[in-house]
């Protein structure tokens, strides 16, 4: 199917997106394109005076730096950000649209605390970077020895846990403890060194997993063999778990975008938004993070706060994150990335308006800080930066049992929980089938509703045990947000 040249999202918009490479002289939407425009980039469909807002998604994505005429390529050469380091916010709630629960289900592992995991794995978590390789060696040998009895044995090494102070150390401890509490972990082995700042005894105070073992490498005569013996004990317990039918209300979806392009806000992110709506309407949970990547669109989330208290918490979270940038002498608009710009995204406002679509129209029921776990159903806003690995780790630690990761550029990265890679365009899906799990370009060829049905089927299959591309490739990483002094 041949795509039309341009697509206008909202009739108020002054720009449209090129659905394919457009040549100079082509006419679409009543305008003649004045110069060649790459796929995913924007073309003016209305005149915009210098200093006036440029509209996309029905909202401003920046300010025209000079007069823009219809048919002109609209990008960094003629649009600048209008973001500031602070914002004036008022509580003006809107009524969410009516959503109906879906009848889909999946096969998951119901844990003693009532949560449902999508995997039954043994996780080996080091307290400190010094024993990261030790954890990997234990996990590798255990996976070979116990393969088939559980869904996998995985280690999550990291470089932190020592030479950290105060809040920085607490952040490392909190994120590791939260991971250890995850329902996808049928058993957890915490591997400590002995002399590190992140002492095992302190870290496990935040862990309430019923199938937990610990080892101190300095106190062990053979930490690898002892670790294997402890994993054997964990497997004996974990292997008793079996999959059973569970409704969508038991899913916890983390939603994330990485390497966005001009199609992300047209296809992949709106599709993920539909998944957030379906799961939360069923009584499940969705988690949105990447706080710097909602700057310029935060009012849309604030208007959907479940209460004035939640609104105040969103304001505080966004304002604190902006202040974090300012304290370090950085502009709050220091985004999009070079890859985003090459893909057609011009300003952070444009990126943010596309990014918040992953939350659909769900009501924001709670705000959580970095390293904290979800505590309500509905949509939770989670504190974390935009970095793919850091924010995806935070989503997993918060309790996401699957992550929907949209991308227009592609990445091989995978994270502790099943990470479903959703390509914003069919070209990426065709070029990188070893990375991509779902082609959101179907939204342009087949329509948004059929594409959403297909994506929901994919999510339920993965939640029931189908491996993602990242899982097949052995891509399992964590990254911890480092914010403080290193000794």
TrEMBL record:
Residues 13-80 form the SAF domain. Pfam families: GD_AH_C, GD_AH_second, SAF. CDD domains: SAF_AH_GD. InterPro entries: GD_AH_C, GD_AH_second, SAF, SAF_UxaA/GarD, UxaA_altronate/galactarate_dh. The keyword Lyase applies. Keywords: Lyase. The keyword Lyase applies. It comes from the Bacteria. Belongs to the UxaA family. PANTHER family: ALTRONATE DEHYDRATASE, ALTRONATE/GALACTARATE DEHYDRATASE. This is Altronate dehydratase family protein. It comes from Sphingomonas rustica. The lineage of its organism: Bacteria, Pseudomonadati, Pseudomonadota, Alphaproteobacteria, Sphingomonadales.
